[in-house]
Structures are given as C-alpha cells and as structure tokens.
Amino acid sequence: FQEISSTLTTQFKVISKTCDKLKNNKRLRTLLTILLAFGNHMNGGTKKGQAYGFDLKILPQLADIKTFDNSKNFVMYIYEFCDRNYPDVLKVVEELSPMLKRASASLFYYYYLFIYLFV
C-alpha cells in the first residue's frame, strides 16, 4: 500500500503542478483572450455575443469554422493573427507541451491503477 500511495502522491503532484502552470500562464491567458474576442466579434448581435468566457469543450471544434471563401479555418486564422500581432503567444505550445505530456501520462497511470485495483 505504501508504494502505491507514494506513487499516487507523486503523480498527483505532477497533475497539480501542471494545473497551476496552466492557470498562471500569461501566453495561454492571452491566447484565450484573443479567442474570446474573435468569438464575440463573430457572434456580435446575437445572444452569444459579448460573452465573458467560453466552455473549453468548444476548442476542438474551432477547426470546423471556415472563412467565407473556405480558404482557412478559424485555427489557421488565429495562428496568422497571432503571428502578425502577438508572436510571443505562439510559444505557448512549445512551452506547455512537455508539461502536458507528463500530466497525461499521470492521468493514464491513475486510470490503469484504478482498473487494476477495483475491476
């Protein structure tokens, strides 16, 4: 039990540290602010316009939003906008990727440990 408890504590610390870094990351905050501003602009004049936030579940769907001429999707457009106006924000991917991989590995460990212990 001690070994499992120690491992779980370590894995929990990795996930907790990742959450703190995500919450306090200025580049990520700026990127999410840009996404919110563009979303509010696109939804202006509707009940969805002028939102104070958005559900993170929408993020995977952003690639499905196309320009009028179908030449770009929303993700490509935001990337180009950030590249021109906020190039530092684009470093968020390389900055957070290693940390997110470690946290993902921890989550998978929890999942398999749960199955092993309780199923």
Automatic annotation (TrEMBL):
InterPro entries, sorted: FH2_Formin, FH2_Formin_sf, Formin_Homology
Residues in FH2 domain copies: 1-119
UniProt xrefs under Pfam families: FH2 (PF02181)
Entry-linked PANTHER family: DISHEVELLED ASSOCIATED ACTIVATOR OF MORPHOGENESIS, ISOFORM D, FORMIN HOMOLOGY 2 FAMILY MEMBER
Name under which the protein is recorded: FH2 domain-containing protein
Native organism: Reticulomyxa filosa
Lineage of producing organism: Eukaryota, Sar, Rhizaria, Retaria, Foraminifera
